[in-house]
């Protein structure tokens, strides 16, 4: 009997009616049937002799029905159903057919079920199928993948017969060997005579990546695990995971079940390489969104959050705006997840900007490790933009907003304009906040780190608590004093150092809340007057400076220098340094003349 073992075309599966029609073509017509075999609803009227000569199971079953003239046997749970049995029956009748990658797994399983082994008959179906599997299939990666697909419906028997494990080992070793060969092919000599490896595009030559995407998730997981063990490049593993996820979570999402999608996400996350920057950040965020939506297990989500946290400095605002798919009273975006990501970022290992080439693991056990200042600066801007985006949400609780704002260390923000803007948006959207809550919210802002424009806006922002406005006005005054000192450093003007923090807003135990509030209002009003007066004086000095430059070009006489000294002396009397009575720097009565010129913007 001849069976073609070298033709690899796939056979079309047979329906039950087609199967019955086909077997009538090859079964004996001149000899009456003496046995009926029922398989998966299909009925086969056959002959005992060719079947029992090859199948130990059928011989045993026939022996149990010796008393009856025509035996009827039902083969329950036969692997591959009626289609597989038809191939086995053809073999028993000596009919030629092709062993291919599409049917070899079925043949191995059905021959085991029917006991068509060498012990029962030489050169039997089992040994022929095994020979084809080992000598043909396991030397070809594409055929191994096709056999694994066939095994999906033949488990657990295909596993017990080691069909699955042999194909998986073959795929993993083949991919590894091809990568090694590819690496050797890129070896070349430089102009100096040194041997080096030419650059290769990511995953170039890894044609198997797309092929693996056809496998079911459980077998795909086993293939990737074997590849990692064999040493296949992490970049190739990551590329395969991306390809598989795109197919399973986008192309099949319409017809697929949420349980299946959840299993895919959790499995892919568990298979990801540990190396940094191998898995694209956008892909990690995509998986995290799916994990939130599908309510994946905690280990899966925490793993994604750790990986994202390790490279958060290259994320965008759109990346971290993760929608929340839960209850009606929830916030629009998943603030808790972003907070955990920020905590992971703050606790990650500190890397310099230049040593990211050969990075190792994305996690660090060091409790004192911190991210680089450059990364901190980038993430601080990202956080401030995120806060401004989520601030209008009416369901966003104050504690959560503050937790996000204060996750980064104090030195992360060199300028607090972004944080001030976000807090101002929150104050606009939550106008029922109490004064203590407003103070707690604004405590995050370092008013010394506001730009001149932001400081001017804050000084007249009535949404801020009174204590914060007093601080803003104080630092504006301090900024102007130091600007004057820098303009004329030789004069007797003492700069006010920015290390001293204003404390006027602290509640005194000796004052009632009403008196304390009145005191803050008074101090606020005085600081505004002093600030306006100083701005006017600074403008006068700038005009004098221009005038003096013109005078110096016309004359260089001593008389001019004496005049210059007198003019400057008069200007600096506004700070009261020449007063013999030791008066304070609080606004004098002369400031009342300028009061009418000040207009408070709302």
From TrEMBL:
This is Phototropic-responsive NPH3 family protein. Residues 517-558 form a coiled coil. Pathway: Protein modification; protein ubiquitination. It comes from Datura stramonium. Pfam families: BTB (PF00651), NPH3 (PF03000). Residues 33-101 form the BTB domain. It comes from the Eukaryota. Signal peptide: none annotated. Belongs to the NPH3 family. Residues 206-479 form the NPH3 domain. Residues 576-588 have a biased composition (Low complexity). The keyword Coiled coil applies. Keywords: Coiled coil, Ubl conjugation pathway. Residues 572-602 are annotated as: Disordered. Residues 589-602 have a biased composition (Basic and acidic residues). The keyword Coiled coil applies. Gene3D superfamilies: Potassium Channel Kv1.1, Chain A. InterPro entries: BTB/POZ_dom (IPR000210), NPH3/RPT2-like (IPR043454), NPH3_dom (IPR027356), SKP1/BTB/POZ_sf (IPR011333).
């Amino acid at each position: 009997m001849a069976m073609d073992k070298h033709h690899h075309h796939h056979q079309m599966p047979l329906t039950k009616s087609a199967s019955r029609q086909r077997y009538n073509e090859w079964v004996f017509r001149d000899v009456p049937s003496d046995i009926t075999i029922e398989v998966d609803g299909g009925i086969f009227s056959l002959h005992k002799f060719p079947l029992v000569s090859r199948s130990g199971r059928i011989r045993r079953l026939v022996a149990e029905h010796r008393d009856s003239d025509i035996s009827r046997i039902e083969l329950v749970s036969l692997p591959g159903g009626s289609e597989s049995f038809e191939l086995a029956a053809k073999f028993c009748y000596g009919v030629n057919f092709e062993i291919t990658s599409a049917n070899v797994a079925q043949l191995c399983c059905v021959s085991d079920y029917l006991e068509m082994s060498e012990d029962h008959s030489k050169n039997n179906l089992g040994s022929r199928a095994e020979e084809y599997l080992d000598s043909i299939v396991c030397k070809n990666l594409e055929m191994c993948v096709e056999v694994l697909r066939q095994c999906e419906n033949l488990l657990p028997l295909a596993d017990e017969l080691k069909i699955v494990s042999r194909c998986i080992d073959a795929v993993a070793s083949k991919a590894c060997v091809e990568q090694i060969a590819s690496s050797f092919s890129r070896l070349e000599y430089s102009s100096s005579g040194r041997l080096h490896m030419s650059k290769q595009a990511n995953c170039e030559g890894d044609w198997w990546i797309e092929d693996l995407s056809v496998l079911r998730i459980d077998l795909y997981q086993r293939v990737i695990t074997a590849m990692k063990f064999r040493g296949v490049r992490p970049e190739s593993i990551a590329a395969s995971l991306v390809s598989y996820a795109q197919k399973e979570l986008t192309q099949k999402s319409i017809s697929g079940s949420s349980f299946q999608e959840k299993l895919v996400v959790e499995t892919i996350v568990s298979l990801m390489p540990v190396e940094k920057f191998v898995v694209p950040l956008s892909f990690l965020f995509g998986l995290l969104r799916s994990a939130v939506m599908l309510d994946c297990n905690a280990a899966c989500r925490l793993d994604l959050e750790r990986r994202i946290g390790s490279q958060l400095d290259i994320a965008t605002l759109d990346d971290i705006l993760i929608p929340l798919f839960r209850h009606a009273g929830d916030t629009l975006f998943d603030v808790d997840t972003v907070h955990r990501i920020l905590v992971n970022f703050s606790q990650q290992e500190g890397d310099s900007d230049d040593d990211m080439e050969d990075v190792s693991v994305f996690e660090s056990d060091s409790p004192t490790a911190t991210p680089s200042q450059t990364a901190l600066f980038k993430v601080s801007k990202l956080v401030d933009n995120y806060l401004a985006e989520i601030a209008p949400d009416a369901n966003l609780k104050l504690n959560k907003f503050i937790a996000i704002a204060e996750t980064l260390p104090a030195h992360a923000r060199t300028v607090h304009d972004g944080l001030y803007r976000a807090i101002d948006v929150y104050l606009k959207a939550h106008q029922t906040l109490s004064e203590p809550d407003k103070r707690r919210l604004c405590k995050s802002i370092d008013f010394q780190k506001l730009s001149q424009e932001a400081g001017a806006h804050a000084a007249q922002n009535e949404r801020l608590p009174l204590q914060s406005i007093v601080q803003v006005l104080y630092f504006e005054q301090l900024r102007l004093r130091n600007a004057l000192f820098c303009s004329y450093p030789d004069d007797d003007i003492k700069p006010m150092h920015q290390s001293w923090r204003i404390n006027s807003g602290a509640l005194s135990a000796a004052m009632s809340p009403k008196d304390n509030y009145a005191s803050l209002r008074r101090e606020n009003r005085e600081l505004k007057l002093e600030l306006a007066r100083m701005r006017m004086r600074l403008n006068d000095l700038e005009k004098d400076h221009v005038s003096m430059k013109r005078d110096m070009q016309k004359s260089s006489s001593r008389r001019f220098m004496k005049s210059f000294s007198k003019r400057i002396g008069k200007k600096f009397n506004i700070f009261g340094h020449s007063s013999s009575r030791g008066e304070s720097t609080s606004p004098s009565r002369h400031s009342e003349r300028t009061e009418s010129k000040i207009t408070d913007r709302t």
